[in-house]
Every structure is written in structure tokens, then in C-alpha cells.
Amino acid sequence: VDIMSRSMVVTSASIVKQSLSQADVLLAPPIPEGMKILDWHLGKELARSASEYTAQRIAEHKPLKEMQVG
Questions:
Q1: If you write DSSP's letter for every residue of 9-58 in order, what string do you get?
Q2: Which of the 8 DSSP states describes residue 1?
Q3: How many angstroms separate the CA atoms of 40 and 54, rounded?
Q4: C-alpha span between 60 and 32 (Å, rounded)
Q5: Any residues with CB less than 8 A from the CB of 5 and at least 6 apart, and which?
Q6: What is the rounded distance in angstroms from the CA atom of residue 70 to the CA atom of residue 62?
Q7: Sign of CA dihedral 41, 44, 50, 56
Q8: What is this structure's pTM?
Q9: How far is CA 63 from CA 27, 49, 60, in A?
Q10: Lowest-pLDDT range of 5-19, 20-34, 46-60
Q11: Rounded distance, CA 68 to CA 70, Å?
């Protein structure tokens, strides 16, 4: 499990680095306290809180609001 966790972190870091080079905005929603990389059961909670966080940031920041599609 430790090797799998480490490879997931390395892969994630590589993907994040590549994505950041193409990003207009970086939002870092909070992660549930104590959540670890293999806590898949917290996925729905994380998705909900990330969605709320993102919507709030868009509402508070005029340039983000102007970028909204649709």
C-alpha cells in the first residue's frame, strides 16, 4: 500500500505541474481534516465541499465571474 500511495503522489504532482502551466486560475479547496490519499469513502464529501468553495470564490471575485461559461 505504501508503494502504491507514493506512486499516486508522484503521478499527481506531475499532472498538477503540467496542468498549472495551462491554467488561468488556481483554486485550492480545503480537504476534510485528517483525509489521507486512500480515503476514497470521503470522495463525495470532498466533491461537495470543493463545489461550494469554488462557487463562493467565483461569486467573490469579479474576474472569475466574468470567466464563467454559459
A1: HHHHHHHHHHHHTT-S----PPPPTT--TT-GGGHHHHHHHHHHHHHHHH
A2: -
A3: 21
A4: 22
A5: 37, 38
A6: 16
A7: negative
A8: 0.59
A9: 13, 22, 9
A10: 5-19
A11: 7
